[in-house]
Specification:
The chain is of the alpha/beta class and 176 residues long. It has one domain: Vaccinia Virus protein VP39 (Rossmann fold, 3-Layer(aba) Sandwich), CATH 3.40.50.150. It has 5 helices and 10 strands; from the N terminus they run ααβαβαββββαββββ. The strands form 4 sheets. The chain has a 4-stranded parallel β-sheet. Strands 5-6 form a two-stranded antiparallel ribbon. The chain has a two-stranded antiparallel sheet with strand order 7-10. Strand 2, helix 4 and strand 3 form a beta-alpha-beta unit. The longest helix is centred in the N-terminal third of the chain and has 14 residues.
Length: 176
């Protein structure tokens, strides 16, 4: 079992934190327009499929990658036509794509999350704990990496009507 978004936290995340992915999916759909059908989309850190599912439903060929097998189980239920793989971006062979999506936090530091969940199951309560340590990148590092990979990138204030709070950044990158 994974120690990164295991079953309880995966369910909580899927139920309560899909707005950002859904808003990002709408931006991708609008950018692709009629080209959405058959477009190859890679969703890095796809989680429970909040971004993958609406793009797959719109006719895109979606390939998602995530560390958590439990989040991937949910993503597969939400987007049965999509292909999902368990693994790290640093070790995966990504397929060719028309669009690559990734959603996460950024800053120039390590973010440590101490997460305790309580879930009612069968009339009793189950407690789970996880610690997530994430290396966060500053926006200029992300833009430089995208540039080095051959993309023209820009920052966005959010995804469509969804404005992002301080500490979160949206990007749009197009292959030059």
């Amino acid at each position: 079992m994974s120690d990164f978004y295991a079953r309880d936290l995966a369910e909580i995340h899927a139920e309560g934190f899909g707005a950002l992915g859904a808003a990002a999916a709408q931006v991708v759909r609008e950018a692709l327009g009629d080209r959405i059908t058959g477009a190859r989309i890679v969703d890095i850190g796809c989680g429970a499929g909040a971004l993958s599912a609406p793009l797959s439903e719109a006719g895109a060929e979606v390939w998602g990658l995530d560390l958590s097998p439990d989040l991937l189980d949910i993503a597969r239920r939400r987007a049965p036509r999509a292909v999902f793989r368990q693994g790290s971006l640093h070790e995966a062979d990504l397929p060719e794509a028309d669009v690559v999506c990734a959603i996460g936090e950024e800053a120039e530091r390590i973010l440590t999350r101490w997460i305790t969940t309580f879930r009612e199951t069968g009339g009793t309560w189950r407690r789970s704990q996880e610690v997530h340590r994430l290396a966060l990148l500053a926006p200029d590092q992300v833009l430089a990496a995208l540039d080095a990979a051959g993309f023209e990138a820009e920052t966005l204030p959010g995804y469509g009507a969804l404005s992002l709070p301080a500490g979160l950044q949206a990007y749009r990158a197009v292959r030059s």
